[in-house]
Model the fold of this input.
Amino acid sequence: MVWLRLLLGMLVLFPVATLAAEEIVGSIKTVEGSAVVVRDGGLLEARPGIRLLRGDVLRTGENGRIGVIFRDDTLLSLGGDTEMAIEQFAFAPGAGRFGLVLHMIRGVAAFLSGQIAKLAPDAVRVETPVGTVGVRGTRFLIRIEG
Amino acid sequence: MKFWRLYVAGALSIGILSGCGQPKHLFVLLPEEDGSVGRVSVTNPQGGQVLDQAWQMTGMDSAEEAPRTPRITSAEQVEILFGDVLAVQPQRPLHFILYFKEDSSDLTEASRARMPAVIEAIHARQSVDTSVVGHTDTVGPNDYNIRLSQERAEIIARQLVEAGIDATILEISSHGERNLLIATGDEVFEPRNRRVEITVR
Done:
């Protein structure tokens, strides 16, 4: 029974995971100092113009900073010594699918919510080691000491 | 003398970051540029708090502590703690709406005149992620409108590429009659719903 559920789960998840265009969640707009994107276990130097995928982890050095725009117009910026994973992103108004889940491991972040928070307020959250932020909108700041 | 100064400087910075009863981990709600204020909740297994007033702040020292009762912080304190991260916040995306003639993929004259502004915005923002989304009004069957809105989006995308925009930065999609700008019943002529929306990020 457990195996059947796992199999069904994989069937549901797999087709979504193979749609490359769907995986683009946004792009990097600003970078200062040292910052990287962790993707599939490898490291990419962060620079403006890099398109971000679901599952990417953004990591800044002590003096690093990154600014990102997501496809639903959410703006995210990270300060120094910060790590943030893009766990989930779905923005398909035509199909009624919405979701944005970030996992902040440590550091400093500023967030300005976009259209997902407007259209599906329960679908946006930021998870941190000390608690979960439910986002109805719009501008907020987080500092998590590592 | 030197030790004394160091002591004072250290005490001051500790005071700003963790003293004065301020928790180690912080959550702050800011007002928007237009003065409006949103709403966020902060919860963990120990409890939860809601922030719904400008400059309200909560926090805790660890996951074993519930979020504290929110209090109002100041713009000055936020600048000290978060100034550098606020400084790299990207500009908001630019939105353009282009309108079409009835049952057609031809832009209205006024919207045709907007195309150079769209192209300029894509260059100015150095966008690598611009979406072009087609829409229709509610006249005609849904599947016909999905095709019509896709055609509208593709024609605009083609014009952008002909003007020198890199095709790989464009995300083309169509919402048919399912995402109306002006809410109407079915089979209603509405020029403002016959459109392509372009978001330059």
About this structure: Chain A touches chain B through 49 residues (CB under 8 Å). The first helix of chain A runs from residue 2 to 17. Chain A has one domain: 23-144.
